[in-house]
Amino acid sequence: MYEMSDGLLTGFSVALSWGNLFYCFLGVLTGTLIGVLPGLGPSATISLLLPATFYLPPTPAIIMLSGVYYGAMYGGSTTSILVNIPGEAASVVTCLDGYQMARQGRAGPALGISALGSFIAGTIGVLGLMIAAPFLARFALRFGSPEYFSLIFMAFSMVIYLASGSVIKAVMIIVLGVFVGSIGVDFITGDLRFTFGSLTLSDGVGLVPVVMGLFGIGEVLENLEEETGQIQILRTKLKGLLPTIQDWKDSLGPILRGTVLGFSLGILPGGGAVMSSFASYALEKRISKHPEQFGKGAIQGVAGPESANNAGSSSNFIPLLTLGLPCNPVMALLLGSLLIHGISPGPMLIKDHPELFWGVISSMYIGNVMLVLLNLPLIGLWVRLLSVPYSVLFPLILLFCLIGAYSLNNNVWDIIVMVFFGIFGYLMRKFNYEAAPFVFALVLSPMFEESLRQSLLMSEGSFAIFFTRPISCVLMVTGIVLFSVAALPWFKRKPFRESQ
Amino acid sequence: MKKEGIVLAFGIVILSAMPATMVSAQGSYPTRAVEVVSPNAAGGGLDFALQLFKPRVEKVLGKPLIINYKPGAGGIQGTLSAKDAKPDGYTLMAATVSTLILPPLTKKGATYSLDDFTPVCNLTSIPLLFCVKEDSPYKTMEDFIRAAKTKKMKYATPGTYYNVHILMEALSRMAGFQAIHVPQKGTAAGMAAVMGGHLDMLVAASSGQAGPGKLRILATAEASRLDDYPNVSTLKEIGYPLVISASDSLWAPRGVPKEIITVLFDAHRKAYAQNKEEMDRIGKTGEQMVSILTGDELIKVYRAQYDFFKKILDEMGSAK
Amino acid sequence: MIRYDRMSSLFCVALAAAICVESIRLGPGSFSNPGPGLLPLGCGLLLGFMGVVQVAVSMKGSRLGQALLWKPGTRWKHLISIPVSLVAYPLFFDILGFHLVTFFWTGFMYGGVGGMGWRSTVIASVATTFVSYLLFEYFLGLRFPRGILNV
Predict the structure, then answer these.
(1) How far is CA B232 from the centre of its chain?
(2) Is residue B120 domain-shared with residue B24, that is, in the same domain?
(3) How many CB pairs below 8 A link A and B?
(4) Residue A461 touches chain C, beta carbons under 8 Å
(5) CATH classification at residue B202
């Protein structure tokens, strides 16, 4: 304990220097804005900024780059709520209820709760990072391929279990998502799968074009198909800019539960962020007394996933700082930045570079405060954006999608993919399929296949490997139970969405 | 939304203005910025080498180097675009064995060969390592090979048909054992799998595996022992003459005038000569060794690796 | 909805069949040495099975009334012209360059689809093009094709 308070003291004295405060601010500001622009995610921004930070000392460099990262997580919800364009996979869930809230004139409270929820989650996440980092990182190592496979299997079952429409459709959509995720080079044998000779497709179907197409473009098409003259996203009047007392009562539980979920799943590599936001949504819907309100503007459906998202962005740092293992592309970029500064992160980082370790963590706390101060005043501005006539707004939405998709790899094929999934998303709405589970499956598909095939290689073809290892067994059995509960009575269950 | 963009942009402009471009140039080339196409994404090992040289070479050249990241299809996309670039010396290409040699051997769509490029300069060399868990019962590479003959070992590499995968295949053929290859997505994932005790060995290019609380190196595929790990034997010492390293290097499209290549090579050699200590120190944290080779030496090394990989791949029956 | 469920399921069954054929060509391998076709084949089989189940369920009769997917007032013009223009945007990207393409494209959106007058269309397109140039190209340093204007 003494060591920690000592460390914190060091940390805050480092983070509170004018220079570091400035870089922290610059980072979170850039992050927020980049999070708002669809397409330009944190990894694109950080790789853009990376060369410039080589001229800074390591601590401010990492402070700024991490600021961009959690700032982007913060800002990512804005376009999801306002115009139904999720910037990345983790904010797909925010679209479901956030955008509906905006349509009911409650964009303010939605943005407010996601900002404040993120703040609470970020703060608790930083605390958790300080207290439990080394222990948690060791625990995460106990997850091998079989454990990941079981975990993802359980996650799929959970999404099917909680699908709001028909179970059959939910299974179909997830299977389709897994399939689309398998397009591209097979990572084990190097074979090209379903690429139709396209080099672009050999890298797989990019997530961001898919998400922007399914949600952003699909929504625009649906809005424009009707002959209603001047379409407004805001069908009703604005109701308040900030969450009410009732909103808070509804959201506090989801925020805390989301934080715990996000923090724990954020330690695992790969799909941690997206799994935790879906898990949080599913959990809230499950324990809610009014599950029918989910998908129709329930504030719990915004508060929980957003908090999970942000708590995860703190715990993402754990494997990097304590073991030197980056768990997502952004962390890999940060690792690159540390290395070029002559610092090799790992178990010795806290001892060798206390000013860096504690300085960065303290700055994350300060950065969270800055983000709230920065975001709350912006809410008014964002909400006013919705009063722009739709005939002016929709070309901008589409143009942002176009440029966002192109800027990913400077490749026009990403735009084509986006348009394809725009039409696909529109048809899915028409035929009553949900888009969110598709994205979920698409994101997890590579890990799903990778862990399955690695496990089978390890066990030389025996599926028993998923049941003989304790962690894997628990996850697998939970998944099977959830799936059976969902699947068995499918002919009795009345899908309540069908009456639309 | 626009106003904020400007603020954000302001920040970026400040930052990107920091690397001042400076010092006058002599001679005619280069008269403007030189673009370096990187077939790998920012932040990786290749980028590390490029960033290590960039500011120091810029000082010598007197013109900025712009790194243009074109990742995709395992390096094929960036390499193809550099192949088609104008051979005027203003577009160069960064390469590794994995972007330049292996794709034409193992992948469809990689319609290029070493002959399409003129070597400029080798930048860094990266040793290939065989690592086990820190508390593993195998203390030496001989221990491991002996055990592998009775028990099927599972080993991780960063991917199928990577140089390290082919190297391990070659070793297992030579030593007469069979091991199960469990490819991972990248070195970090492989490290995690071995640290967690899920797999027995990681074969990968050096990138921070060793150190307290991480992995133990059993052997390298270097010609001689590494300065930093004097106790780690080489494969050659223990009777398997496999000497191979990874390298990050700089190339130009075929047809760039000789004088330009000379200017570029000299700039790199001079940049290193002027900053030797600093560059060696930073290189070490990134687990890379600065190793300036002339174009002729560079292409010899790559040719030799090409022949080696081709031979093993043919034996494995898995060339494309 | 029932009739439309049948339509979408039949589509999925057809897709599943195609996936299966291609997966078998790729080679599913065995469980001890899984090949590239294993996961897609699994997806194809499950998708096909679920599609058939849904068709069967929908055959059991229509409990609910038939709602129309597209109401009579649907503006097909927009539903077709927007995707087409989105696809056209990248096609002309290399030839015309970022600025011209953005100008024409936004012009078409504001005027053609949004129904603005021609004067405000021109002003709005110029403004949008200029702002997106400033934001993305000048400040964010993204690189776009320059096209015939070469600016």
Answers:
(1) 21
(2) yes
(3) 170
(4) yes
(5) 3.40.190.10
